[in-house]
Amino acid sequence: MSYVTEIPAAPADIAIDHFSRRLSVETDCSDVAASIKKGEQDFVLLHVVGSAQTFAAKHIPGAIHLRHAEMTQARMAEWPMETLFVVYCAGPHCNGADRAALNLARLGRPVKIMIGGITGWADEGLAFATNQVHEVA
After folding, report:
1. Distance between CA 55 and CA 132 in Å, rounded?
2. What is the value of pTM for the model shown?
3. Which residue of 10, 57, 84, 115 sits 20 to 30 Å from the alpha carbon of 3, by its own alpha carbon?
4. Phi then psi for 59, rounded to 5 degrees?
């Protein structure tokens, strides 16, 4: 018996529940890129870490720079309550997206994390935007 089969796989109903819940709180770089490319961006993409200068140097096209520490009820009032936010940070070594997602959820906002962040975007070979600062006023 291998380490893989030592613990049996979950029954289908448990697996369906688990993966449905997981996909309800995360998306990936490829899905975000495909949505943007098809003009189906029905979410607000937020770059949630770093300074305006690091954002200007490299970010995902269409993203808005809004650090997780700046997410307040007043700041988020710019968007309707049903707006889906997709948040990302530097990559798997960074918990900024988790902090942002928690902040947004506490504000009653729909949110998903784009797993992989900037590192994942680069790993997918996707292009970055530069020299565009889209700060939320």
Report:
1. 8
2. 0.90
3. 115
4. -155, 170
